[in-house]
Amino acid sequence: TSFGNGKGKLPKNVVMLVDESKGTGVLASSWPSPPKEYDIGYAGGIGPDNVKDVLNDIMNVAHGREVWIDMESSLRSVGENESDVFDLGKCFKCIEVVCDIGLYDHPPFLY
């Protein structure tokens, strides 16, 4: 199979999203290792309440590769007048977890 550059390789700026739930927000029972040919991110049921366990599981299969996670509906809340709002408190909780498990240093401006 020939990809974009005709040499069978994807461009360096191409990454894939692994979402076994197909956008339904159901947590996967396991996570695949990233293929050698391209980088991947993970999605599906990941949220503030389980991000620590999910990240530990993903880091075990990533074998030192750089990966990313995607969250959408789990970072939202019902606001005034039943409006759907992006919840920064939930985002901060995820940042805390990422820093607590040592993946990144805590940004000093968030203390």
Lay out the secondary structure.
Elements: E1 15-18, E2 39-42, H1 51-62, E3 68-69, E4 76-78, E5 84-86, H2 88-100
Parallel strand pairs: 1-2, 2-3
Antiparallel strand pairs: 4-5
Provide a brief overview of the structure.
Helices cover 23% and strands 14% of the residues. It has 111 residues and is an alpha/beta fold.
Describe the structure.
With 111 residues, the chain is an alpha/beta fold. 23% of the residues lie in helices and 14% in strands. The protein is built from 2 helices and 5 strands. The strands form 2 sheets. A 3-stranded parallel β-sheet has the order 1-2-3, with no helix packed on it. The protein has a two-stranded antiparallel ribbon with strand order 4-5. Helix 1 (51-62) links the parallel strand 2 and strand 3 (68-69). The protein is globular.
Q: Average pLDDT across residues?
A: 89
Binned strand content: 5-15%
Instruction: Report low-confidence residues grouped into runs of 5 or more.
Output: none
The helix content is 10-25%
State the order of secondary-structure elements, H for helix, E for strand.
Answer: EEHEEEH
Number of strands: 5
Q: What spatial form do the alpha-carbon principal axes imply?
A: globular
Compute the gyration radius: what is it?
A: 16 Å
The end-to-end distance, rounded to whole angstroms, is 50 Å
Question: Largest sheet at a glance?
Answer: 3 strands, parallel
Output the structural class: alpha/beta
Count of DSSP-assigned helices: 2
Q: What's the arrangement of strands in the largest beta sheet?
A: 1-2-3
